């Protein structure tokens, strides 16, 4: 097929290709991009088109393959690969939080509430908050493990009560 014949037949498929691109993407801008990419690949690979075969089907196949490849790239771009031990980053549940004045005030108020706790519960609670394990706290303070767990539990309970008094009833979960 000569170049002018190919362009004439290609131009006859333009409306159908635009419709198919929109059906795939459901977005007019993405459909235009998909159409342009299809046109580019069809024109650059026109020597691979066999005379006597269905041009429309050939163009649809090109468009569908481009769409699938782009979709796979988007999915892969949103996939997080974590090669750390025990998938630390995936399991950490860490979210970035914007630090604003309001959150600073809440932290300050929470710190004041912690300071109001009795030292027997405050110290084990703060050590646990800083990352110490129960057994490490028990060893450092010279207390039985059960006592440390109880004191941390009571510190949490007292803080919850203080927060409820300060900010209203908390929803029970």
TrEMBL record:
Pfam family, one: Sigma70_r2
Keywords: Sigma factor, Transcription, Transcription regulation
Domain RNA polymerase sigma factor 70 region 4 type: 108-159
TM segment ranges: none
GO molecular function: DNA binding; sigma factor activity
InterPro entries: RNA_pol_sigma-70-like, RNA_pol_sigma-70_dom, RNA_pol_sigma70_r2, RNA_pol_sigma70_r4_t2, RNA_pol_sigma_r2, RNA_pol_sigma_r3/r4-like, WH-like_DNA-bd_sf
All residue ranges annotated as the RNA polymerase sigma-70 region domain in the record: 17-74
Gene Ontology biological-process entries: DNA-templated transcription initiation
Stated family: Belongs to the sigma-70 factor family. ECF subfamily.
Record's protein name: RNA polymerase subunit sigma
Species annotation: Neolewinella marina
